[in-house]
Design a protein that fits this description.
The protein is an alpha+beta fold and 235 residues long. It is 40% helix and 24% strand. The radius of gyration is 20 Å and the shape is elongated.
Length: 235
């Protein structure tokens, strides 16, 4: 199905394009729907020369080590682009992309994208900013795995999702809008499921963790201090 003008407008790198430019892009676009849990790209897949973007829903990007251990690299939502190697690399998917919820994925043919960039170089600049930010995040993740304690990485992960997905104020504290399972958190910070459970319990005076991944931050200031290694929770 060809993308609509509205769908193209939802993609961050195209948001400010003139309507005429979006109309020119339309014939070289496609939108495909995926159900929750469905694989969008497999690690090692050969990728067509296209730009990939999330129109609606949420996707999860994971990497599997030679040992079989799976790590969550990032979660992306409406408007975000992904699968950079399809345009800038060797054309091989470096990770597996899974629909975390029902979602719609938009693709734009490379030749049409290059033509749009020639007319509006701002598109390329925005793409480079996105990829640069992700490289920096990856660097910080690797640095954290090597040099920082697991509790620090876990606290930073919770704060990241609080900022990225937002929170709702409740009488107890700030409730994250996104649900974080033990399994998801463990895979995101490079620890075992059992260690994740133990660390969350050690934060009982700072967060409330409920079944199903619901999390409420009771003391944002203390969680922030742990994230920066200034204090450690009491076991």
């Amino acid at each position: 199905m060809q993308a609509s003008i509205e769908q193209l407008s939802q993609i961050n790198v195209f948001a400010d394009l003139d309507t005429a430019d979006k109309v020119n892009l339309q014939p070289q676009t496609q939108v495909q729907k995926y159900s929750k849990g469905e694989i969008i790209l497999h690690e090692g897949d050969s990728l067509p020369a296209k730009l990939y973007a999330v129109v609606s829903g949420t996707i999860q990007v994971t990497k599997t080590a030679t040992t079989g251990k799976e790590t969550i690299l990032r979660t992306l939502t409406n408007g975000e682009i992904f699968a950079a190697p399809a345009l800038l690399g060797n054309g091989i998917s470096p990770a597996t992309v899974t629909a975390e919820s029902d979602c719609e994925i938009l693709t734009v043919e490379r030749d049409a994208l290059l033509k749009a960039i020639q007319q509006n170089p701002e598109i390329a600049l925005r793409m480079l900013m996105v990829f640069n930010n992700r490289i920096q995040q990856l660097h910080e993740t690797v640095h954290g795995l090597v040099s920082e304690r697991a509790i620090v990485r876990l606290a930073r992960l919770i704060l990241y999702f609080a900022a990225e997905s937002g929170t709702e104020s409740t009488p107890q504290g700030e409730c994250l809008k996104v649900k974080l399972s033990y399994y998801r958190m463990a895979r995101s910070v490079g620890i075992s499921y059992e260690e994740c459970v133990r660390l969350i319990k050690s934060l009982k005076s700072i967060i409330i963790y409920s079944r199903g991944g619901k999390m409420t931050i009771l003391d944002m200031q203390k969680l922030d201090a742990i994230a920066f290694g200034e204090i450690l929770p009491e076991d």
